[in-house]
Amino acid sequence: MVRATADAVQAAGGRRGHRRAAGRPDGQGTAPGATTGAGRAPVNKEHLYYVDLVRVLTVGLVIGTHVLALAPVAPSVLDGALGMIFHVSREVFFLLTAFVLTYSTRKTVRWPAFWRRRYLFVAVPYLMWTVLYFFADGGPYLGQVFVQQLLTGTARYHLYFLLVSMQIYLVFPLLRMLLRAARRWHGALLVLAVVFQLIFASAVQHQWDLGPLSGWLRAPDALLPSYAGYVLVGSIAAWHRDALVGWTRRQVRLVFGGAAGVVALAIGGYLGQVRGGQPPLQAGMVFQPVIVVESLAIAWAFLATGLIWAERGRFGARLVMSTSDASFGVYLLHPLVLQGILLGATASGLAGLAQTAPDALVLAVLVLVLLPLTYLVSGLLTAAVRRTPVSLALTGRARAPIPVPPREDLALVTTGGAR
């Protein structure tokens, strides 16, 4: 997950100017002069507060997906219907990753420095967590198994995302060149990207025979081409951010209504496939055409939600921004937290009890209790690790400084005085 925080404002009067900008009614913290001309590469001059909320919401979908996958009950129709919503998390994150990368890089980028920083903050955590999850699985501890997991991102079910992220970083200069060279045809590129994802999702769903490429369809998770359309859509959205944000502000009801309609269509299609004889797991698989449309619709609804939040006072801003800052660590850590919770539920007999309870009740507990609990515990652990020397390796973030009280407070503590 790519950080959405823009570079600090460097203009004269930077701090005062930044505070004034952050107080703007649009909630974006726009620095003076941070405009993006049509057809030009975006200039990174502001913190996009709405992106923080989008990231927080998307991490919630990720955790929800894994909570449902580890549910101690047999897959049910209701379980699959919920999965049709949570499944869009990976696609939304690829859209968000491309959006942030495109918007946060300036017109001229020193690519060696770009790669050095990006790979440091992703490759190191990827290696560390591959080792941790390799041992957390309880064996067999074979060298060939570890190498295979390291190369394929299969030490745990979510690590593929880091492999794909590293592939995005590798080809990102080429993507920027494409966007600049084809700036008059971004509409055509957008259509091409969506059509590609629709065709690819159908190919995976129905396992088309593509000869040498058939292996790709059987194991598409950790390969960038599987998500190329989403990356291109996210980059084009960032290139035309001003127009996108302006239109979304004016058409909030249409965005929310469209998203609700698409979600209803997706669930309806899923129920139709189940009625046609498909098992819930197969009918609710992530690679299918309706998920493509649903992912775009939900991502747009998240953008609208973030804009509304940013423009109406940013309620709970400290919590949202701190959670956004910890999101990568939460993403890396939460499967281990879920594993611990599942072991505890099994040892205490709760897992066995869940198998005798109604599916609706079990799923309600999972979504309304276990999901936020996992999010909370993962966030607290990430915050604690952030203040240790292993922060980079475990959370993909530099070590957070320990807060230092103001000098007057230190004086009071030293002298034992009171206000």
Sheet with most strands: none
Residue share in helices?
Answer: 55-70%
Order of helices and strands: HHHHHHHHHHHHHHHHHHHH
How many E strands? 0
Number of helices: 20
Subcellular location: Cell membrane
Domain Acyltransferase: 49-373
Protein name: Acyltransferase family protein
GO molecular function: O-acetyltransferase activity
How would you describe this protein?
- By secondary structure, the protein is an all-alpha fold.
- It has one domain.
- The chain is built from 20 helices and no strands.
- α3 runs antiparallel to α12 and α8 packs antiparallel against α10.
- The two termini are 45 Å apart.
- The N terminus and C terminus are likely disordered.
- It is found in: Cell membrane.
- InterPro entries: Acyl_transf_3_dom (IPR002656).
- Keywords: Acyltransferase, Cell membrane, Membrane, Transferase, Transmembrane, Transmembrane helix.
Compact description:
This protein is mainly α and 419 residues long. The protein has 20 helices and no strands. The chain is 69% helix and 0% strand.
Keywords for this structure?
mainly alpha; 0% strand; disordered C terminus; disordered N terminus; single chain
